[in-house]
Fold:
Amino acid sequence: MYDAIVVGARCAGSPTAMLLARKGHRVLIVDRASFPSDTVSTHYLHQTALLRLKDWNLLTPVIDAGTPAIRKMHFSFQGIELNGMADAVDGVDAIYCPRRTLLDDILLNGAREAGCEVLENFSVTDLVFSEGRVVGVRGREGRGPERDLRAKIVIGADGFHSTVAKRVGARSYNVRPAANFIYYSYYQGLDWGLHHKTGHNLRWIGTWPTNDDLTMLAVICNRSHLKEFRQDPENQFLATFDDVVPDMGKELRSQGQRMEPFRPMRNPDNYYRTAHGPGWALVGDAGYHKDPFTGWGMADAFLHAEMLAARVHEGLAQERDMDEALADYAATRDEESAPVYDFTCTLAELDLPPFYRTVLGAISQDQKWTNTMLGIIAGVVHGDEIFSPEGLQKLYDEVGVPEDERAYDPGA
Structure:
């Protein structure tokens, strides 16, 4: 009997398991993949995610693997430029974008070192129930026989196609339709740094350096472009760069060499799922997913893993009723993630509403305010520094926005 079985060993699962094991609990991680292995990802680790890795003593392996440090961010929203960097926090003064083959392996090794048992190539086919409560998982390792594994709690960290969520009937809520799709790949011959630029034609381009002297290039387009993209991905990819940043498009055509196949992803809808029930909980994309536009998927996975592990520990240690602790996790997850969820869903439409056009335009006029906004994006500055009535008033006053041009209500 395990204290916890975690289904899924990537950005949400391994940290959850590791933190529970560090508290002395017997934890099993199962995953249908073997590691190291790749997965679809933006790779983008905001400073708040890096602070979690630092606290867990897992940031140094990311840096030592040669992951490039990014100390300048170039954001552009339909011509509004935000170029700078959030202030350093606890010594973290850079952004890193590691390949998932590297990052997920580091996370899983951290869980192993904490004492977790790991079953790779293990496919969960069902959950085990007793008197309406989840008491384990059923599955097989490779082509082996099906078997049951028992635990006091089963944690689903198995992505938006979560088997755990399906088997417990987790309800979706606050669902917002996906607006776009993504294509990305890896290139040599480019030294662009980090760019995050939204054009005027429902298209976006992103670039950031990653491991092995490669630059990851991505495009996000409104779903209305999907048919033409599928018919000719290579030329549509290049045409998106031409459209959003013509100079970068020219350089990409003359100097960029694509090293791997394109990875397409048609984004699922944005959603929350019921986060817990008798004997089970969900973390990461299994329980909460938003558009990758703001690059907050892995950051939220880390934050929610830490949040869930703390509550599960309270239940296992009998410091608190388990169901009460899990309910607290769910409520806190929803409350704390709501601003990022709303902001992401809005910007993912690739068309700035008037409120954000006014605010971001004002921010772009001053480097201090620009760095503050980049700190909000990085998760190390509270959003109220700008987006509260007091913050907006101060911003407009300092940069000299006329009274009749000021905006205070995102919904107006």
